[in-house]
Amino acid sequence: MRVKILRQAYPGANPYWQEFDYEAVENQTVAGMLDDLNYKDDLKDISGAPARRIQWECSCLQGMCGACAMVINNKPALACETFLKELKGDTVILEPLRKFPTVSDLVIDRGIIQENLKNANAYIKEYKGAPAREYAHMYAAGKCLKCGLCLEVCPNYKGGKTFYGAAFANDCYLIASRSGSQENAITESYKKNFAKGCSKSLSCEDVCPMKIPTLASIAKMNRR
Question: How many CB atoms are closer than 10 A to CB 66?
Fold first, then answer.
């Protein structure tokens, strides 16, 4: 199997492609493959030239942290949940998420997600509690990993300067549902930073590894 990786040594450096040979293991994930490649003390590319270890992120390797989000064969996904046997062809192409700044290789900076929450003053100032009928959806919306996959596939998200994306919409719902005096402010922020820019393509729901029903969050916020 051939592994083709878009690499970048540091922020702002020129990206370049580097290819490796890999003997696929049955039931191996992309995350496991990257681990195997990095395990070698003398990692070499297909030309036999020495290569530095591949930079990528992981924490749980169980689809619960979202750190290993990347573009795999042109499809944004979690490396720990993508099995080699499910990929078509003999080449695995890995790229960092394109809508975030690259730190190194497959490591990206998702800081804009948190910064946008801070800019929108998205917090619970006075807790009031939510009605029981909201519990099931609150649980679903609260599973967001902040992995960035929904922002990667969103046709309206251009880097988070004006339109904050699906993750923000879910957070707005969770905060508005439980906040007292802050409810109106977060609803206005949702209107300004999400509702006016969303075209309802729902690609965010399709790619979400936690299967969050974002459309329901949007509908609940729109009613507010």
Answer: 21
Per-residue pLDDT tens for 143-177? 999 999 999 999 999 999 999 999 999 999 999 99
Q: Tell me if 143 sits within 8 A of 171, measured CB to CB.
A: no
- Alpha-carbon distance 29 to 147, whole Å? 18
pTM score above 0.90: yes
Task: Give the CA-trace dihedral at 166, 148, 154, 212, to 10 degrees.
Answer: -50
- In the numeric block, which tokens belong to residue 75? 């499809």
Number of C-beta neighbours around residue 126 at 10 A? 10
Contact yes or no for 124/181 (Cβ under 8 A): no
Partner residues linked to 219 by β-bridges: none
Q: CA 224 to CA 222: how far, in whole Å?
A: 5
